[in-house]
Specification:
The longest helix is centred in the middle third of the chain and has 102 residues, at 51-152. It is built from 3 helices and 5 strands. Helices cover 53% and strands 11% of the residues. A hairpin with a 5-residue loop joins strand 3 (184-190) and strand 4 (196-204). It is rod-shaped. Helix 1 (51-152) packs antiparallel against helix 2 (156-170) and helix 2 (156-170) packs across helix 3. It has helices at 51-152, 156-170, 208-221, and strands at residues 2-4, 29-31, 184-190, 196-204, 236-241. The strands form 2 sheets. The chain has a 3-stranded antiparallel beta sheet, covered by helices on one side. A two-stranded antiparallel ribbon has the order 1-2. It has 245 residues and is mainly alpha-helical. The chain folds into 2 domains: 58-153; 156-241, Fusion Protein Consisting Of Minor Coat Protein, Glycine Rich Linker, Tola, And A His Tag, Chain: A, Domain 2, CATH 3.30.1150.
């Protein structure tokens, strides 16, 4: 195959001063093999199909997002549950404290009621005791008056015994354990002038505190009254001590 490498044709349409001379035509034949070869056009490689990997990545991303969302949901539920349990525990604690306070108030109310009841009972017993003491004193006064009147008509010895009994009784402090029907036989030794030098308590229905009270009353009553008639004086006396007579 031949290819014209170049072709130049020039035509002059002016009238020449000289006879027309044909222009020389130069042509060079170039073989096709002598032509420089163009570099082959490279076909672009087809892009690899990544749709499977992309779908896998998307699914993995979605799975991770779902997992994070589920974890967040679980954390929120746990937080809500924790707060609920704390509130329930706080409520139980308030109820326990309320119950303790109720029991404390109830115990305090009962204690105050017991105190008030005991105070009322003490006042009642004190009034009863005071009334009984007034009655006893009144009866003792009546009995003493009766004895005084009887002694006026009694013998000198009886009047002397009555005076001694009265003086001892005035000095007697009655113990709480003394029976109502207290009666004791007391042997007393005295000097002339009535100074008591010895007290011996014989038969007695009182306890030891009663015996000590009688002995103390006799020593406090010393010197004992002297008889109106000196002839009836006796150093050794046997007294039936009965403060109610």
């Amino acid at each position: 195959m031949l290819i014209f490498g170049g072709l130049v044709v020039a035509i002059d349409f002016t009238t020449p001063a000289y006879p027309a001379v044909p222009l020389a035509i130069t042509a060079t034949l170039i073989a096709e093999a002598d032509l420089p070869k163009a570099p082959p056009v490279e076909e672009p490689e087809p892009e690899p199909d990544t749709s499977v990997e992309d779908r896998a990545r998307e699914e993995e991303a979605k799975r991770q997002a779902d997992m994070r969302e589920e974890q967040q949901r679980i954390r929120l539920e746990e937080e809500v549950d924790r707060k609920r349990r704390l509130e329930e525990e706080a409520e139980r604690k308030r109820q326990r404290e309320k119950e303790v306070e109720r029991l404390r108030a109830e115990a305090e109310r009962k204690r105050l009621e017991d105190i008030e009841r005991q105070q009322l009972e003490n006042r009642r017993l004190r009034m009863v005791a005071e009334e009984a003491e007034l009655l006893r004193q009144r009866q003792a006064e009546l009995d003493a008056e009766d004895m005084r009147l009887a002694a006026l008509s009694a013998s000198d010895e009886a009047r002397w015994a009555f005076a001694i009994q009265q003086q001892i009784t005035r000095n007697f402090i009655r113990p709480a354990s003394a029976p109502e029907d207290l009666e004791c036989v007391v042997n007393v030794r005295q000097l002339p002038g009535g100074q008591v030098i010895n007290v011996d308590i014989g038969r007695c229905n009182g306890d030891e505190s009663v015996r000590r009270s009688i002995e103390a009353a006799i020593y406090k009553a010393s010197p004992l009254p002297s008889p109106e008639n000196p002839n009836v004086f006796d150093r050794d006396l046997q007294i039936i001590f009965n403060p109610e007579q």
